[in-house]
């Protein structure tokens, strides 16, 4: 990867086959993005060679054509969806707890939608940039094609959490931790609602559209659900990486 100010246009087949790399700390952090905001960030991150440092100014360009092809949306919708997503991305943040310190970081320091040119340009914030490379000791990589067809941001987030544990095929998380990661405070307070609106639809979509076969169950402590256990494996005809 060259040290240009912008990462140029990349063909869809090239982007979809590339790896998205995220530090595990970012996967485990608390944040909320819409589906199209998530898609734009992933498509830009996939342009990186995760083994190398980011460009000095962390700027990435994604065209409407690329977005439409990669995520199978019609061009008219793609223009509207990208403009709306970029307008909101600048305000989005990530929340991490490091010991006694609660930290908030912006995803991007710059977000542009160039209507006449049909493209967006994102500048990842200096604090976030290292988290989307292999420069961290603990990181997870997966092919963008694995999540390109997903239609729920919860499905993408769950896929990334599972991808951290491909070596064991077992992922256990407390119900509260899952709520924190997805910023679901005040939503779906009853576990039955969380299961019906978030967990089961995400599992169903991942089973249908990715290389994973997933089974899960709630684990109770007393009468209340305490933890969620996910067991998963790759389908025989597909490979995760």
From TrEMBL:
Transmembrane segments: none annotated. Residues 20-162 form the Initiator Rep protein WH1 domain. GO terms for molecular function: DNA-directed DNA polymerase activity. It comes from the Bacteria. InterPro entries: Initiator_Rep_WH1 (IPR000525), WH-like_DNA-bd_sf (IPR036388), WH_DNA-bd_sf (IPR036390). GO terms for biological process: DNA replication initiation. Belongs to the initiator RepB protein family. This is Replication initiation protein. It comes from Sedimenticola selenatireducens. The lineage of its organism: Bacteria, Pseudomonadati, Pseudomonadota, Gammaproteobacteria, Chromatiales.
């Amino acid at each position: 990867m060259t040290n240009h100010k912008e990462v140029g246009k990349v063909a869809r087949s090239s982007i979809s086959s590339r790896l998205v790399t995220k530090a595990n700390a970012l996967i485990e952090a608390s944040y909320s993005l819409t589906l199209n905001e998530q898609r734009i960030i992933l498509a830009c991150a996939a342009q990186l060679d995760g083994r190398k440092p980011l460009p000095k100014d962390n700027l990435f360009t994604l065209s409407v054509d690329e977005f439409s092809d990669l995520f199978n949306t019609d061009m008219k919708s793609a223009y509207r969806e990208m403009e709306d997503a970029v307008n909101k991305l600048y305000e989005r943040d990530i929340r991490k707890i490091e010991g006694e310190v609660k930290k908030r970081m912006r995803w991007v320091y710059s977000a542009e939608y160039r209507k006449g040119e049909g493209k967006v340009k994102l500048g990842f914030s200096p604090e976030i940039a290292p988290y989307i490379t292999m420069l961290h000791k603990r990181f997870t990589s997966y092919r963008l094609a694995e999540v390109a067809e997903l239609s729920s941001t919860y499905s993408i987030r769950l896929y990334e959490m599972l991808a951290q544990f491909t070596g064991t095929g077992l992922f256990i998380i407390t119900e509260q931790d899952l709520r924190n990661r997805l910023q679901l405070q005040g939503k779906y307070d009853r576990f039955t609602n969380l299961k019906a609106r978030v967990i089961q639809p995400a599992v169903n979509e991942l089973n249908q559209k990715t290389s994973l076969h997933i089974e899960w169950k709630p684990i109770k402590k007393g009468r209340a659900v305490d933890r969620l256990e996910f067991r998963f494996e790759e389908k025989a005809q597909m490979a995760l990486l």
